[in-house]
Design brief:
Layout lengths: L2 H16 L20 H15 L5 H4 L5 H11 L2
Length: about 80
């Protein structure tokens, strides 16, 4: 998968889970400040990303997801 494909798929998950507009999701968007995700939203988001990308995301990895770009980088590495 290319970075653009990964970003698009992540955006789809974020839009569905956080009920934000796709145009509001950018690589530099922060989950808390920009997208309004609280701790429960983050847990649900990680579970949805695991399903969408068929990967396991450990809690220690998920804690590092501050921005959308962090998730893109993580999934790029996983999908190699």
């Amino acid at each position: 998968m290319t970075q653009e494909e990964i970003f698009k798929k992540i955006t789809d998950v974020i839009v569905a889970k956080l009920e934000v507009k796709a145009e509001d999701v950018k690589m530099e968007s922060e989950f808390g400040n920009d997208l309004g995700a609280d701790s429960l939203d983050r847990v649900e988001l990680v579970m949805a990303l695991e399903d969408a990308f068929e990967v396991e995301i450990l809690d220690t990895d998920a804690e590092k997801f501050l921005k959308v770009s962090d998730v893109v980088a993580f999934l790029e590495e996983k999908k190699k």
